[in-house]
Design goal:
Elements: E1 6-7, E2 12-13, H1 16-37, H2 50-55, E3 60-64, H3 73-78, E4 83-93, E5 96-106, E6 112-114
Antiparallel strand pairs: 1-2, 3-4, 4-5, 5-6
Length: 115
Amino acid sequence: MIASGFCLTKFRYIPDDEKIQIAINYLLKENRETVANDKDRAVVYPFQDANALLASNPSICNVSGSLKGDMDWLDKIQGHLASYVTLEFMAVYNGEPKKVRRTVAITNCGEAWVS
């Protein structure tokens, strides 16, 4: 059951739309911290929240069970990995548009981490 992505503590599966929201919120929080520490060299994500990013029509926004060639089976059977959320969207670097592609791993219980 754990290897299938089931969260025992919440006694449910985390749906894909919730995983996308979790991943976007994680990336936005991480980006705010990066910009605060080094705004001259940071890529700025021009979104206030997950809804704003989704409204921008990201070119890629998907949830998958594995990455090509990735050896993630051990994380899956331990519940540390249910899915990967991949997003590709436009951001800003030095005042110029820049395409950003990020992948975030989501645990069975909805915790995010960069894989």
